[in-house]
Amino acid sequence: MRLVLIRHAHSEANAAGILSGRLPNVHLTEKGLEQSEHLAVRLGNFPVASLRVSPMERCFETISPWINSVVLPNNPKFTPIIDQELTEVDYGSWSGKKLAVLSKNKLWRTVQESPSRMYFPKGEGIAQMQSRAMKSVHEAVESKSKGAAVIVSHGDVIKS
Q: What's the pLDDT band for 119 if we cut at 50, 70, 90?
């Protein structure tokens, strides 16, 4: 089984230097939209067994050009899975805050040096997120279908 991991393209939160987490309505920037178009070309055409996408808007916006230009023309009945297990880390009270401000917090050192020990105030821990995301990855790769398992998610989810 081939596993393709894709992080969403440049988002409005990336441009603003904000840790958006699960905040709704965070979309791609113009740069991100261009990246998503280039991604469609770069990925090209290959057999897809499953496509799992985080429920955050920026993830579906990232993969939509590829779905529309490559996947659906070859398989009009193909349906991507919106997978809650692949959603962004719940950064809790850190959500929506500037990274420049958060980097001065004592806990930032834990995030950088021992992320698996980090539990975000009023949010979830990195280890918790890793556990839920890996359930989805294991389901995807255990499929008996021919083709690649494609996962579209977030930087921290993919890194973990």
A: very high
Decide the pairing of beta strands 3-7 and 148-153: parallel
Q: Rounded distance, CA 33 to CA 57, Å?
A: 12
The H-or-E segment that residue 32 falls in is helix 30-43
Give the span between the Cα atoms of 6 and 80, in whole angstroms: 14
Q: Could you give all domains of the chain from N- to C-terminal order, each with its CATH number?
A: 3-159 (3.40.50.1240)
pLDDT digits (tens, 9 = 90+) for 35-59: 999 999 999 999 999 999 999 999 9
Q: What is the pTM of this model?
A: 0.94
13-27, 52-66, 135-149 — which is least confidently predicted? 135-149
Cβ density class 67-104: b for 16+ within 10 Å, e for less: beebbeeeeeeeebeebebbbbbbbeebbebeeeebee
Residue 48's DSSP bridge partners are 148
